[in-house]
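User: Please predict the structure of the protein below. I'd like the answer in structure-token form so I can feed it into my own downstream comparison script.

Assistant: Understood. Taking the following sequence of 461 residues as input:
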Amino acid sequence: MRKRSKLWSGSIVLAMGTFIAKILGMFYRIPLTNMLGCYGLGIYQMIFPVYTVLLDFSGAGVPSALSRLISAFSKEERYIKAGEYLRASIRLLVILGLLGTLVMAFASKGFAIAQGDTNATLGYVFLSPAVVLVCLISCLRGYFQGQMNMVPTAISQVVEQVVKLAFGLLFVYLLLPDVKKAVAGAAFAITVSEFSALIQLFITYKLDKKKRANFLAKENAITERKEITPFNLLAKNIVKNTVPITLTGVLIPIAHVIDSLLVVNLISVYRADATVLFGISSGVVCTIINLPVALCYGVATTSIPEVSSLKSNQAQNETAKKAVLITIAVSFAFTIATFFGAELIIKILFRNLSVQEKQTAISLLKLTSPTILLLSIVQTTNGILIGKGRLYLPVFTLGGGIVLKTIISFLTLSNPSINIYGSAIALIACYFAVGLVNLILIFTLKAKDGNKKINRGQCHA
């Protein structure tokens, strides 16, 4: 019962934090679009692909990696090792983060020229400090998630969005009508928001540190027999766990790049509105689909430390079943609501679309709605596999799914009678296959004992 309540409470806390953050993000985007206009918004959007890639390679997998490593210890050991892993991860990621910040700042003009508009240069410069800030935030989030405390992560997500909304609109208002400077101001608001989230997490960490000190003072015998783990061993385990999680995270952006290449090029052979159809698919339908999927992200994140903290394969499978059932229950409800409410959703959120575009969006949203269920299951099962120590399996299953998706996309998008609906068919096939294979692997493979032994050995290194 205690495990169930932890899984529920952790998932609910993260889901609520993510939901509030997503809603605030939607509220921010509407006035931002009106103030900057389509051209200004285009410049603003140009800087994010590079920013996202730099974040992915600077430690996007660190929160999940740290949560797995820390949660594998007993409660007494966890209080000690959490601090050690936090310090080691900060030493590692500060270097990577600073490198990413410098690349983004000094190569800003080159990126802007390559993208075809030098007005994006200033935006890159003012957004660049956010790379190192997000690296530090990732370390602190992993520290708390490893102790199965999801509240700081949820609060930090909301803090980010509130600060970005307030300062973003303020900076844009003050810097207009100069669109270039206004975009740079909106980018700088992101840097300010990440700094604010970092301050919030740091204060929470200081309070948590006092709590740990009080606990360890009562456990004198335990603290005396513990030795400090060498940095090289901590760093080795962080890198070992981070690399596969980072690779898994990079696969989705790669799939989006493939989509952008296939959809427009294949459909443009027989239709003149290929770019418009791609915009409806990626900008309208996927935006709606991603909101309920984000709500289920809490279950996936909570599953990693929950499963890692359990020693027997039977206990891990029981927790896995609960996590999957929670995911199915929540995501299935959203799938049904999205399917039957597609027309209402499109008409309320995207009123400016033409009648024909609305009809295409409604049909595409109905067809794509099962991906809410399927992608949510993929998220959760990936988290469970990581928790069981099978770190590279999500890379292979998701990679295989993307290959399948690419093949189906090529075959269906080339068919004029299917056109853009082929992207939805490919998406469903991809996530169905990945989710099914993940479920089979979870309940047939045991936890990787080698990882457990390494983790236990760290206590006495």
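That's the full token string. Residues 2-46 form the longest helix (45 residues).
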